Batch of 2 targets.
Target 1
Amino acid sequence: MSWPSIDRLKSWGGWRRNGHPRRQIYLQMDLTSTCGLRCRHCFRTVIKLPRYTMTQAQIRILGKEVFPWVNRLALSETGEILGLPILDEALSTASEAGIPFVRIQTNGVQLDEKVGKVLLDNGLSALGISVDAASAQTYESIRRGGSFEEVIQNIRSFVQLRNRHPSPKTSIALNFVLCTPNAEETLDFLLLAKELGVDSVAFSHLMIESEEMRKWSLIYDPATANSLHADIRRRSYELRIPIALPPDLPSGIRMHTPDKMPDLGFWGYCEAAHDNWMYMMFNGDCFPCLNLQGSGPIGNVFNQPFAEIWNGLFNQSFRRTARNDGFARGCDHCKAFISQAVAGDEKGYLSNRLTSMSTASLGIEDKVALSSAGAR
């Protein structure tokens, strides 16, 4: 699970029913391809993205062409935006467009008082902050280039700033990727979150981006992972802090076998189709879901009307088939929502580059040669 408030978001479905008839889309996007950290578990360790950041003129196009369709907006999925000069412009444009819910995901490094005021004054709905550790040693070994003490102080100051704000509506969540280097700090992390005064904590399992990362994943030891899940649930209850936690793992993991990969498609519930997702890259390329980039973009908002992209044959055909037949064409396995029914499928924790998608299809440089992708 990638965002701690998704169950709450689902309960706000009235936005889709009662709002503007065009306002139906959950837009997940990136304003930039850049990030100042070099996290050990990030996809940037294995692929090299072109450096690109949207311009103010492009944001104004979004405000006119795209945002009127949107009822929920994620302004950052993979890039770090808090230090961008266009941050205020992007938030104010979303606010002026009347989008009811806007969230940002950040590493917290540049969450100073000035940035915090920009977020709060523009009515940001939710801020997720990735920390992944409860100690400086572990944090700085995972999230290379960041200072644990500075990030924790930034979070503490922003919580205080939020609480003093005339409209303190921004919910604050901390994110923690479960893996072997930080597993022993999960309970202390919950205590830290409680002390900081954040609203919730979201745990997720590691997305395996390379063969090297397999040894950090907890999914291959279900007993240990499930015991850790139980400890997290117990501590969160004791501390009265809401959490999002992956489902428990079955006793055996179904390993991915590349040479037995069927025609690409995922049989199961597709949140992207049912909840009208759209992912937009930093260059304006659009995809029915972030996980479908391997199929190529279905359009570019800076080259054609967004209505034409959304109502296009491929986008609507994908959604109809996924909703009516339970088959998400072009998807190897859902990565965002792993239900109990599919929690034991290794593909749910493997990056597309290890299952089906070539980075070359996106014009992205692969920094690690792929070999024996299905072997442990």
Target 2
Amino acid sequence: MYLCHERELAEGSALGIDTGGSGQASVFVLRHAGQLRAWRDACPHHGTPLPWRKDAYFDASGQHVVCAAHGALFDPLTGACTLGPCLGDALTPVPLHVADDGGLYLDANDIDPPIPNSKNHQETPS
């Protein structure tokens, strides 16, 4: 499934994608420290969507993904919760495939409902 082109993601930005046609982002992709990642748009604490408004996944410092519901902070590259009620938990990674032309894709098998605490591998550009 095509998500977007990598040039749509400036450094320190994120983009929510509705993979199921529900009108709500289920996955988000981000660029941080020159690396691309894709995560399920669900806080491990309660499963709620992360942003307080469309595509607002980063905190004001631009260094952490933040859950708007309770302020938990997550490392954007590892998904680990670094502050908040879900310490020890992490965001659920979604394998991201980067095409030679810069297109970002998810495999259709990777957009099923999240498996709690899954440890999926993510491909990033070289």
